[in-house]
## 1
Amino acid sequence: MDSRFTLKDAVFVLLFIVVIGAVVFVGWMFHYQELRLTALQQTVGQLGDVQKQQLATLGRMENLLRNGVTVNGGTGVASTEAGTQASTQVAGVIRRKEADGSQYVYCPEVPDSPRQPDKRPDYAYGDWLVQNLGMEPQRVTPFIANDMAGQMASGPVLETLVGQDPQTMEWYPYLADWYRISADGLKLTFHLRNGVCFSDGVPMTADDVLFSYNTIMNKDVDAAPLRAYYDKIEGCRKVDDRTVEFTMKQPYFLALTFVGGLSVIPEHVYKFEKGEDFNKMSAVLVGSGPYKLDRWDRGQKLVFVRNDKYWGDRPTFDRLVYLFIGNTEAQVESFFKGDLDYLGEPIQPDPEIYLKYTRDPAYAGKFQAYKFDEPSAMYMYIGWNCAKPMFKDKETRQALTMLIDRKAIISQMMKGFGVEMTGPFNPLSKQNDPSIKPLPYDPAAAKAKLAAAGWKMGSDGVLERDGVKFEFDLSLRTGVPIREQIATYVQQQLKQAGIRVRLTPWESAVLLERLDNRNFDAALAGWGGGTPESDPKQIWSSESIADKGSNYVGFRNAEADKLILEGEKTMDEDKRMEIWHQFQKIVYDEQPYTWLYSEEDDAFIQKRFKNTEPYPTGLAPLDWYVPAADQKYR
């Protein structure tokens, strides 16, 4: 073979080198373009972040220009408003009294929780929180969800104009970034925070606030219990797209609590022509909160998922699940099987169960247990239907209370997890008058009262009056052993005095319906939640008897009505407490309820959850989290 390198070979090699070079160049160009594209994407993302920061900054500047600024850590003030006086800033909340006497509160950003979870070193997003409502809600739609289960379920979805610090119980702007209360207390103005939107991404405006208020006040909407709190409002008007003003008919000591506590719902979702149309939307739950309703598996559970369009900080849990386990024993079994993460309100562990598991070495360290007091804790009572002839007079109702050994119920059945009450106010609240002493457990004196009220023993051993035997149904909720024990004990004690009691257990929804329709004789039930200082009107005003109001026992007293109205408009706390104490004396003397005890709270929480300690206002599940290594649902 001839091995000489010819001109032809040189041309071929040159062409080969050119081709290789071209390939390398094209590859480099693709790589260069990829680098440029990546850089461009990063720049766009940074611009998006910058734009968000700019919008937030512009929002803050807008408010600062309108409302003044604090300097030197809040110890001094520079303001564009003439006559502005003192200003204080605590945890990002600016509070000051203006020259005209109005109160102004501004919060550029929503304050962190006192135990902000994402500040913890082992904090992680993810996992589920599975809880129990104790019963299936009748409805979950805002304003018409009148049972506790429906109201609890809406908590992660609905938000309010103001929020409450769980440690100090002070109010601060939430959906609003500032609010102002006039010196006479008759005008409350709220300015919506920039960037707030509903879970479908639609921005919140003043029109939504106005719509929410008007929906509650629509008498064709089934919101009578809630509407009772808003009857002191003269009206609500839109000032501009982000500002609303509420005008009060009179000063009201809880004006900020209820006006600022208005849950804002989207008009474009709930808009209706007739009130009955809104009432039919029993399963529609849309708000601006950190979670949104994913599905309602009837008879089983409600499932909420993270709201990816949430305007605030990203919520911790991927899902919130609410089960409907009404039986206490089944609830406890589910907890220790790991199907439930939390036992607490509305069906907390019975005292006997709490003591059993916290003292058993086999369970030591396997779960967290808390026992705590709070001024808004639930209380148990027997409500006497005052419309029934046998309960029409206070002497009979007083005798019934004196026939029931309430101290024995607390010590034996509640294992000391309760405090005897002398009226509708929690013993820890300033509203409660400690000088009022409980009616004694005194069967002999009680029988004398019954005789004076016209009751005589019949031939069959049952008391009679005006030809009517003293026998009645005591309604109670099924599946709660402690209530069944109390009801049986009451039945036995009244039997000894010649009173025949039939125990009639009902499923929760049925019991609530019977109470709403006044279709009962007496009921063993409980009230819970609320604020440390509450307005008695919802439960005790004669106005709350009609329209399925919460005064289902039909208590009527002109002097009590007068004191409620007087207390509501008394802004001086000391004077208001004197009024509440007078009111309490009347109600306790009348005994429309036999108050049994104020319940001490307890709870079980699975061990994997962190940051779970109770606040003075109770537990805060949305503060909880699970470290990544301990997460159960991935």
## 2
Amino acid sequence: MSRRGLAAVAILILWVAGLGFLVRREVFRPDTERFAELGLRVNPGATYYAVMREGRHIGFASTTIDTTETGIQIVDYLVADLPTGDRTHRATARTRIRLSRAMRVRDFHVQIEAEQGPVTATGEMDGDSVIIVVVQTDAAAPADTQRVPVTGPVLLPTMIPLAVALEKHPAVGETHHVPVFDPVARALKSATVRIAAESLFVIHDSSTYNAAAGRWEALLPDTVRAWQLVHGDTGTVAGWVDAQGRLVRGTQLGLTLERMPYELAFENWQSGKRDRADPAGPDDEDILESTAIAAGVRADRALDEMRVTLRGVDLVGFDLASERQSVRGDTVYVVREGRAAMTPQYRLGGIMRSIEDHSARVAMRKHLQAEPLVEAMDPDIRDVAARLRRGERDPRIVAERIHRWVRDSLAKRPTFGVPSARAVLVARAGDANEHTQLYVALARAASLPARVAAGLMHLDGKFYYHAWPEIYLGDWVAVDPTLDQFPADAAHLRFVVGGLDRQAELLRLMGTLDIDVLEAR
């Protein structure tokens, strides 16, 4: 299975995962006294990690905890040289969180830097019930500020392992619920984490320099007991932590984080870079394999129907069923939309009046609003949308105009970063993620309900990571400005609908999904 396309969200996910911990979230009411007790158990210290890929040392990560009588500060940092095709991209993620000793968040600062520039999110508590969050995705544009109500104390995602381990002595079979505030999605959620296993790891506490080899070598091995954390709902392995909540070993996105002394984690990475004249030449495999764009493949024909079997992965939680996809056991049938599905059932500006059910109207409204990285209310995006719509009220006609404009206006090239619609409008380049983010933002600005879909694309006998928009014409219809398909053909196998938090679910497929194509015509 091909996997390159998720590189656009890899660094953000690594941060959200808390150096290797991805968890599912549910609504939860926190216990104030419990958090205050946890805060008293937090110990200061620094932990270092080598970032590895297929046995190759490509980066460095660290977690530092400082404590005072009145507060706690946690700083997580990751830097890695990530190969994508014939290039290597330096990517960094840094999170600083300041808390009271009762584990109440006072403020935080998150910064992710990749090819398309930095994304920052800062937050500060206003009293006990509101977090003021500022997200900046484009230095040339105004920051997006929101006041988010919260109930009781909350944690940031990187703090989940700490809270799970310190609540009480870890025991296999326990399930923990931790209230979490996601600063990028700007939402209060909760993490459900289960302790699935217990094991011993050999960790080196110190190192010595081998002058002959020009490298640091490990000394004084120590045995550390660690517990395996998994997603509470899916059973997907998240990583191993010790009794202090510190990561011992974790794997995400094809990267492995291994705890070791600073000299081994950082100095050996730096010396290894100097020793390599070409750290990631053209023959170096992508960190997440190729999207269709990166691989340079194009559909030689549009498929009207496709039937596949999916094995090796628990499919619970994926958005496989849709108007164009039906699921029977482990078999998925995909049928391209016909003439009837492409005939609009409403006029632009009147979508809410056409929906009688209140809950359905509420659900539809979110597909017309701005959200993080889909800046539908940005003045420049609204201006382009207005020029494309030109007063037209037929949803299909407007959808096709946006389709053609995005198709013709963006250079097709693989990118690495966190795609923001506003940044894509300026850069005018990208792969499927960038095309999709901009399309959805323009559609919403034109009063056309739209959402992001992501999954796999079948091309030339292989499957590639891909993203594409879905628009609402009466039913949800898939379109693909990246590959110039309106509607998108049946080679598009959808797994999730939504933003970065939903697209992170695709990581469950990596290296485990087995796909057999039974029919493609």
## 3
Amino acid sequence: MKKSQNIVQKILSSHLISGAITPGSELAIRIDQTLTQDATGTMGYLQFEAMGVPRVRTELSVSYVDHNTLQSGFQNADDHRFLRLAASKYGIFFSPPGNGICHQLHLERFGAPGKTLLGSDSHTPTGGGIGMIAIGAGGLDVAVAMAGGPFFLAAPRVLRVTLKGKLRPWVSAKDVILELLRRLTVRGGVGWILEYGGPGVASLSVPERATITNMGAELGCTTSVFPSDDRTREFMKSMGRVAAWQPLEADSGAEYDREIIVNLSDIEPLVAKPHSPDNVAPVSELAGRAVDQVAIGSCTNSSLKDMLTAAAILKNRRVAPGTDLVILPGSRQVLAELARSGALATMVAAGARILECVCGPCIGMGMAPPTDSVTLRTFNRNFEGRSGTASAGIYLCSPETAAASAVAGVFTDPRSLGRPPRIVLPDAPPQPDTILPPSKKPEAVKIVRGPNIKPLPKNTPMPVELAGEVLLKVGDNITTDHIMPAGARILPLRSNIPAIAEHVFEAVDSEFPSRAKKKGGGIVVGGSNYGQGSSREHAALAPAYLGVRAVIVASFARIHRANLVNFGILPLIFENPKDLIKIKQGDRIAIQDVKGQLLKGEKIAAKAGGKPLALRHDLTSRERDIIIAGGLLNYTKKTAGKIKK
């Protein structure tokens, strides 16, 4: 008799290439679809080219331009041209700037229940809202998948989130994920996949489910997934893609490693206070505090339902004097429907500023708030300085709370507005978009590279002795924004590693790049959850360029740890976390016969300042070989015959 399976086990087992779905063990899965965005895509396609594969080998790959759309100089425009031509030549669909945010577009256009999706963006788990196993990864992992290689991951434990009840008026899906962040924290999902189930699931539409799975990234989990049911079919029919729908649910009697119960009826409007998504409080506790800026959009809350809800609140009202309201629809088709329905005119009449369909302020590309101000956003991250203004306080909330607060000019519980609006979504298929298919004559496509697109840095194999000075010591919850900042000033350098490396740890210690070069590289030490946040591989690639060969911390965030391995930086863990206190910046750490020690076992004997230091690693045998080879690209070239032609 076949054993009952949960949704995670069903999808992983149907895509399993090697390994076992046993928590902690390494498994390899086949990837059906990939996505990249322009902040990670240029480097990803340079890496794909370096593998010498003429066309992608996935069922579908899409290149989106949604991050670096400000063309204040030639750099971004050159990258966009390179991405368009590379997509055309290598068999990849291309979504040009202004067409929409990758996760919103992929949900509308390509997402399908039961499929696997690997994306070079940490919010790729948005696809879990439609019943996919959708995982964020570094660009090099995505490039390998496009070349036909498997994706390797540690088999996660599965956390069943049982939803009961129904959301009350003015409470939204954003409040659900904020409640989970309040309960579990930004570290609570590490090593887990969240699988949603229970009677409350049927009350949530696919866009609402996608909001929840999108911010699962902030929990640190591998991904999140919902069942595929009649609501999923309803959404896919409205997108003109009902043929791609299939039902998907857990078997009766399926087992989980843990279960938590969330009663949707008990949730109230919530807000995440600075400077962490898990610093959650009821909106009612902040009511009356002044708000300088409100932003509605991002891959978390830019669906048509979110936009129509905001427009309904703004109808016959004006944005408060002294408060700026900016709105970013998630896709061109959402914007078109807002225009057709009259909702766009309502927003404009209320005093909102309408930006193009991009990530924009969420990634620090424009709309930085004033000094010492409060900005209320429907986004997914509120790390210090992420808005572009170091002294601004970033608060995260639902579109309902955001629109109500924009009108009042102060934090406002949307329940104070009375009866909520009734939102009716169109059921007709959307208008054609501007996603470009790949060329049918790829041999005729000539790829043009602008002067800012520099060659890939080359990594060297692991030396016999790994030794160096502690270049920097940091604490807990260091984000990829700390390591490699985003924003309009730095993002255009994503395809120029020598230039962007000058900004590594800029917000923490502006002298880090010069010190690393002067010392000939070295080591970084830190606390727990090191590297949380974005999938940006530049947070590993640029330090590797500066000569960083090891990072020693109490614990790592999943994607960043994988990126360190991919670029030949050895991720090590303190055997005794209290040893971090003893180490000072400037101490010399040495590991003799590092290759031999890696091959021998998990324990690593080192010396810090001449005194013994006990370390360990949790590398699989494959990851160990990657580190020894000097990174995944070197390893892939060495084992190229193992990628199916």
## 4
Amino acid sequence: MDNYAIADQLSLLSKLMDIHGENSFKSKSYSSTAFTIEKLPGEISSFPKEKILSIRGIGESVGKNIIEIIETGSMQQLQNLIKKTPEGVLEMMNIKGLGPKKINLLWKELGIETIDDLQEACNENIIATQKGFGEKTQNKIVESIQFQQEAKGKYLYAKAEAFAEAFSEKLKIILPKKKFEITGAFRRQLEIIETLDWVTTATSAELKEELVTQQMQLVTDRDGMLILNAENALLLRFFITDEKHFATTLFETSCSDDFLNEWQTHFQTNTDAKNEEEIFASAGVNFIPAFVRETKEVLQKPLPKNQNIVAINSVKGLIHSHSNWSDGSNTIDEMAGALIGLGFEYLVLSDHSKAAYYATGLHEEKIKQQHKYIDELNKKLSPFKIFKSIECDILSDGKLDYDASVLSTFDLVITSIHSNLDMPEEKAMKRLLGAITNPYTTIMGHLTGRLLLKRNGYPVDHKTIIDACAEHNVAIEINANPKRLDMDWRWIDYALEKNVLLSINPDAHTIEEFQNIKYGVLVAQKGGLTAEKNISSFSLQQFEIFLEETKKKKGIW
């Protein structure tokens, strides 16, 4: 039970209390306590009970609930409210535009208990006529329901990863004499996973005998394919083949339809090949890793044989991270110490700017204090270096959150949009281009503001943005948070064509989130990003030269 898991339960309890119309003062106390716990420098689960009860802002009643969560994994008060809440009402909590009080009105006054009921009420224009809603909110609800329906049965790569790896090991244990190799979308490192696929020499009968249980149900068994449903959620597909055709089946199931159709149009697959390398060699094509086998253009313009595709171990600096000076959980010292232990050469500290008040964004005086502290740390930590940066909000008019006198004090500036995300393309482009043309913008952060399977990003003309970044010497972030992975890897090729540098950044708010880099690397590989074009793969010396040259090009040196 880490701080985030405990805070999530308290936050959920607060929302459910509001949905049930319970005491608003008590519900707010749980919400504020959740926020307090997320900001604690250490794990509250390791604190003595008396220390938990003495934390400022945590009363005795809430403190006892926290202790109950730590000891049992949950709290009875929350479970009681969940049991009293229809499943459809719980699902409404994920709908954009619906807060707890609006859900209370829908449920208690209109009798709406399911998403289908809600969608029907929107279609009949009932929701728009309710006080506090209106047509705009009704339209957002409809859009959010449609988005949820489209996302159903889909999972983030990072969410499917642990299960995929553990299940692969289980398969080898229960059928040790049979071959298994994971394939499909997971092997291609797609950011969204709808099925987990394996190629196997096990028979359908052997798989069913070992796997079909109450939690693992049979969906399909035909034409050399067995499909199971894991706990009514994730589909597991098994492509059944023999030893002779294992490599061919692995190759074909590791290609997108687009790629495979192009391959079959121009090449004959060697069905006797012992491995995928032989398949490519027989066709006279340089080996193409599974993660690149996505579009037909890859075959039309193949990667150079010795291209230095970015890898996790080629990332030398951690760019874009938040400390407890804003909304991060760890001190700057802790972050630097962890990175030194991992062999990194530098840290780019990018706390939030003042407009992000909800994230304790830094005002000008606090920036001065942080910069002084970083100078002191750099003297102690050399040759490791901490760079002074900021994740500066792009305001509604396209201006940045600080003026030039403040921006000039940073080693580099990452600019991002965090507010008023519901906007048309014209507005989004005006804001983004305003930031790109500002000479102090070094890196454009999470370009579209999307949250995968949660919300669409605001509409962006990627080509125009990339062209502008090329003109104004602005790099583009590949935000490695597995919920973002933004800029989308499908635009990496165009960015490289325009000679725009990219930067795989974890957007870390805890030391544990340093590992987000992995997910950024996986999608960057799909786009063919090389270490030479990834800023976070620069050595400390290369990074310092990059900053110096960028400032000279922008005329701010």
